Amino acid sequence: MEGRTSFERIYEVIAQIPRGRVASYGQIAELAGNRRWARVVGYALHAVPQGSPLPCHRVVTKEGRVSAAFGSGVCNRQTELLKAEGIEFTDGYVDMKKYQWKRRVF
Predict the structure, then answer these.
(1) What is the pLDDT of residue 71?
(2) pTM
(3) Which site among 3, 17, 23, 38 is 20 to 30 Å from 88 CA-CA?
(4) Phi, then psi, of 8 in degrees rounded to 5
């Protein structure tokens, strides 16, 4: 991933999250090369153009909450997209033990 911007590195990781799985902001940051970039992941997500094929909806908080800022402030859309992939919610949270993507840093 050398020679790429932080956003490009983040997008490369997000693109790998499989259907039916989620990853946390911190997990994406670590896989992109800097575990302290959790906020940068949020900034990168806000910069993704509308209609992009990047599966941004698969990024949630470490507790499994969806983003209130997803899709211009409509977090229900993120929930709908995740449910369409078979991800279940309990009291508004994704069960991270069940649905978190297990890719590790090498």
Answers:
(1) 53
(2) 0.87
(3) 38
(4) -60, -40
Which candidate in 10, 56, 60, 87 is catalytic?
56
Q: Which domains does the chain have, with CATH numbers?
A: 6-99 (1.10.10.10)
Closest CA to 104 of 27, 4, 8, 17: 27
- Per the annotation, the verdict on 56 as an active-site residue is yes
DSSP structural state of residue 60: E
| Phi and psi torsions of 22, nearest 5° | -130, 165
* DSSP summary character for residue 47: T
Tell me: the pLDDT tens digits for 25-57? 999 999 999 999 999 999 999 898 888 899 999
